[in-house]
Amino acid sequence: MNNNVLSHYFPLFSADWSILFKAILLAVFLIMLGVLIYDRYIQRKNQLLINFPLIGRMRYLFYMLRGPMRQYFGDETFYDSFEKLDWINKVAAKKNPYLSFSPTKPYGNQKTLFRHANFVKELDEVQTQFSVIFGEKRKQPFVSRSIIGRSAMSDGAISPEGTRAFAKGAFKGHFPINTGEGGLTSNFLSTLHCMNCSRHYLEFKEGTWFAKSVFRAMKMFTNKEIAQRVYRKMVVREKDRGTFIFDNIKLNYFRINWSVALEHFPQNVPEGVPDITFQMGSGLYGVRDKEGNFDEIRYQKVMRFCRMTEIKLAQGAKQTGGKLLAPKVSDDIAYYRGVPAHKDLISPNRFPYADNMEMFFAFISRLQSISNKPVGFKIVISTKEEFETYARALQDRKKKGKSIADFITIDGGDGGSATAPLEMMSKIGLPIRESLQIVTEVLETYGLREDIKIIAAEKVLTPDDVMELLCYGADFINIARGFMISAGCIRARECSGAGGKNCPVGLATMDESKRSKYLVNEKAKHVENYHHELLQGVRSLLAVMGKTDIRELHTDDLLLR
Q1: CA distance between the termini of the chain
Q2: What average pLDDT is seen over the chain?
Q3: Which residues contact 220 (CB under 8 A, 6 or more apart)?
């Protein structure tokens, strides 16, 4: 095709573009000139821009990009190696995670190695089902179908779409999920279908035949996510949109009606709900009355959907209560937590029923009797002597025939947090390995080890991290970072919402525009895949170490260098 024919069919190719380019260049020049004059002669807040107008602005551009872009330029020094992060992304997407040649961190630099067996096992000789029983003495003990769970992350700190992805991944992958101190929300119950549910404890919103027709048409020509967003706007008022669960079979929305009397709530956890651990923080969110005190009836209602309770006394990277800045305290979050919307939400430092050991453990017993389910607590270890204070109080209660905590969650000093002061993220509490050594030794000394399960949490990414903590005595592993990465986190460090910055992938933000693009169902599969490959990796390591069961693991299986 010659130029004349091309110009005939596509006249734009024969147009004179020089005028447009000149206009664009002139506009750019005028803007730059205006910025130069403003920086040099008008603004008096930044001395760098006075001395270096225009060029000085490049510093702030690159500084702004440093967080989101650091993953591409090797600044991942917080993790053992980039290969760990790459492994998560690969297995989450069901890609082959095998490496070639060598990792970036040399083998000889490893501080901990696993003992290789003289006679290894075949993979089919190693256990295939992993399970932990919490609260064997409770009327309704919790039998976990995995040794790995998603650690505490509140709905609100995580976007509603992110919470739904985690809940769906946990349900399909058969592993527990912790609510975080934000409490139980509709998003944790997003896998629930109301086909066989009693309508007494549910509140429904159903669209007209026109709205349903629009949904079906949108689903046909776009996709399910976009169709649901349009349908939700037609059915549920804006203030309540984040609190309702979508039933894609009956095309209606429903949520728990907490004002209904307790006798209308299900006696057992309904089918279709993931195994949920309810975390109770110092703000008592989700189980507080109008005055902010513990609401026993509301707690009973919540526990009809949860398997056990974890009281949060402390967190590895954040020794104070949770921090949720105003941009994240949406109407939905205010509804769930019983707090004012659009105001900074800073939880108290101290749990309200933990002035002393006797008061705290009496409150745990109270929760056990109310729920008939396991109750434990989350702490950070600083010294052996301080943890012995807990052990002595527990031992004294045991001798008197009183109930004691069913589990203890140990959060190491490197535990993650989306919003925390720098001075507390790096200087408070012991790392998890040292903490586990103290906890297991003290519990055995005081005759409590058989009564209390140990949950460990801190910077666990890959199967070798899981195995190491199991060798140190953990019964169960909680993971936050690894699951976050599997769900799409790119570690941009903009989780808090401070300064108007928001999570670029929509996972840890309440910003509507970014949340709406988050792929809930796709990321739910990634979360499920990641959990599955973690367990497969644990099985592979067990085989090489000559073990058939994780209960055979001990610190003797570690080579500390």
Answers
A1: 72
A2: 86
A3: none
